[in-house]
Amino acid sequence: MGTMMMIRSKLESKLVGARKSLPKGAKAVLSALQQAPEMLSARDLSFRMKLSHQAHDDKGKSPGLTTIYRSLELLTRHGLVQAVSFGDQEKRYEVVEPGHHNHHLVCKSCGNNIKLKECLLERLEETILQEYGFSVSEHLLELFGTCQTCQLAKNINNTDRR
Ligand SMILES: [Zn+2]
Ligand SMILES: [Zn+2]
Questions:
Q1: Which of 42, 66, 130, 147 could cysteine-pair with 107, CB 3.0–4.6 Å?
Q2: What is the 76 CA–ligand 2 centroid distance (Å)?
Q3: Looking at domain 103-162, which CATH architecture does it have?
Q4: Class for the domain spanning 1-96
Q5: How confident is the model at residue 111 (pLDDT cuts 50, 70, 90)?
Q6: How far is residue 15 from each of residues 11, 57, 118, 158, measured CA to CA in Å?
Q7: 33 has a pLDDT exceeding 80
Q8: Mean pLDDT, rounded, of the chain
Q9: What are the residue boundaries of the structural domains of the chain, listed by start?
Q10: Phi, psi (degrees; rounded to nearest 5) at 94
């Protein structure tokens, strides 16, 4: 347990260092993503950054799509940003606590997503280590289905038809 804690705090100080040493473009992308009320695709991000550039009458250009893609890749590698796949072509991105990650419930009807309060897979990883001797270092999990609002709307439509 003690060693685990030490590894974790070492990792976090490394990530704080990484945040400081980020290139200018990546810092801009990170702060734009931090201000966003929801997850954004690279395209959404580019659009938002252009708008805020115009609003603030900034000198110089807002980063192009290539810089944004490259920055997102770098931020993801540093564990500062998480890429989320919603089952379509475009990945969405959100800022995460260094070394942490989120899981989402994605509604296939309206596209809304709900963030899970906790990772439900940590116990599963322990079981896998015990039963298979396999040490899991990372995992991906997004759950697709129908949100409560869409379920209710569907039920109302069904009763109307009767
Ligand atoms: Zn829905
Ligand atoms: Zn997890």
A1: 147
A2: 15
A3: 2-Layer Sandwich (3.30)
A4: mainly alpha
A5: confident
A6: 6, 32, 22, 52
A7: yes
A8: 86
A9: 1-96, 103-162
A10: -145, 155
